Amino acid sequence: MLFFPRCTLFALCLAALASAAARAGDHLEEFAKARRSLQPQLRSKDAGNRATAVARLQAFPIADSVRLIHNSLYDADLSVRKAAYESLVKMSDKQEVCETLLLLLKKDIGREDSQSAAALSLAAVLSTSWPAVRRDAVGFVDEVVAPNRHGLPVLVSMADELGAHRAAADVAPLVQLASTRAFADSFGLRRATVAALSRIADREAIGALIELMDRVGGEAKADAVEHLAQTTGQIFGMDAQAWGRWWQESKDTFQYPTRSVESPYRSVALESQSGYYYGLPLFAQKLVFVLDTSGSMTGPRIVAAKRELTKAIQGLPDHVEFGVVVFNGTVATWHKDLVKANDKTKAAAMHYVEAQSPHSNTASYDALEAALGFDTEAIYFLSDGAPHGGKIAAPVDIVAAITAANKTRRVSIYTIGIGAGIPGGPLDVFLRTLADQNFGLYRRVDG
């Protein structure tokens, strides 16, 4: 170890500060010259010119340059926004850059039109290699972004944007996002992060998915399993430890395939699943059963529906939380919150189901809205008739409203059609579309 006299150390510090100040001065002078030529390009009608100007600005890691690049995150052209984000990522190892971005993000987070810009600004900061800046950024997510009413959409948008980029460099900010309290608190954010990592063709993304498997929730875990099995050719099902052991042995030699074979949705994960309801998988750690008790369910239909639901409830493992919603012209919930599946609660739920009697209309939207009100990963919606009554009655409008409400929630909506009529009929199309647009599967049941 080298030791310097106090006066020498002081002199060295002064010299370092003077050198840093000189470099900053050089940057400011160079930037002032470049800005005069770059501003016409930034205002050009040609998107290629604007993207080129944004890329040139990354040579100046100072606040004024960051602000200009940040403005381009609002550009109408995708290529310009992409160039702006990539420039900010390349500059993210400079503290002044990150501090400026966080200040801009604090303003963006309150604006209705700034979701994409805020998401990309945050991703750029989370890309930094400086541990202290990363800690600050993670704290910023939990203390400033997440509590804001626009915060969760911004965080989900960040994951979606990075997934769309499909860039290996974007694994790092996604891993940092997964270290936030917001990630732990929001199933939608966890699922969006898994989806983003699944779109990045890089071995680091594979390792990150395996590392996250036990933290993301049953439905998102099944998403990860689906991708891992298709990409690696390994079949370990939902066993995160088995995936981890394989990865420790294989990560140094694993080559990401140039082409992955995509199986039908859920086909791979289904092979390792033991719990089902009408043949639909019960992956979720938190789930809600929704049972139609309208007048048309009278007779064999309600008998069969109660039998299958009782069987599914009885088979729930202890770690699962569940709820039951029944509906006809009105909606009723068994409990206001999800409850742990144990012998006592399962017996009470089965008794509640058995006590239902069919009558009245089919307020499908109201029932789905009530189910989305729970802190859940999955909804199992059973009905035998087209929607009739309730706040929204037209099937196409119900699908649109529920899908919009589920945009950041990312809840799986599985649907069961009892006597759904001819394929392509109104109920068949309604239930299939609802499932297809909300991470679920649809089952037709004769009866």
Quote the distance from N terminus to C terminus. Answer: 83 Å
What is the overall shape? elongated
Indicate the mean pLDDT.
90
Structural class: alpha/beta
* Helix fraction by DSSP (H/I, runs of at least 4): 55-70%
Number of helices: 20
| Order of helical and strand elements | HHHHHHHHHHHHHHHEEEHEEEHHEHEHE
Radius of gyration: 27 Å
In brief:
The protein has helices at residues 6-42, 47-57, 63-71, 78-91, 95-108, 115-126, 131-145, 151-165, 171-177, 181-185, 187-198, 203-212, 218-232, 240-250, 267-270, 300-314, 343-354, 364-372, 395-405, 426-436; strands at residues 276-277, 280-281, 286-292, 321-327, 331-333, 339-340, 378-383, 412-418, 442-445. It is an alpha/beta fold.
Structure characterization notes:
By secondary structure, the protein is an alpha/beta fold. Helix content is 56%, strand content 9%. The chain starts with 5 loop residues before the first helix and ends with a strand.
Helices and strands, with pairings:
Blueprint: H1 6-42, H2 47-57, H3 63-71, H4 78-91, H5 95-108, H6 115-126, H7 131-145, H8 151-165, H9 171-177, H10 181-185, H11 187-198, H12 203-212, H13 218-232, H14 240-250, H15 267-270, E1 276-277, E2 280-281, E3 286-292, H16 300-314, E4 321-327, E5 331-333, E6 339-340, H17 343-354, H18 364-372, E7 378-383, H19 395-405, E8 412-418, H20 426-436, E9 442-445
Parallel strand pairs: 3-4, 3-7, 7-8, 8-9
Antiparallel strand pairs: 1-2, 4-5, 4-6
Helix pairs in contact: 1-2, 2-4, 3-5, 4-6, 5-6, 5-7, 6-8, 6-9, 8-11, 11-13, 16-17, 19-20
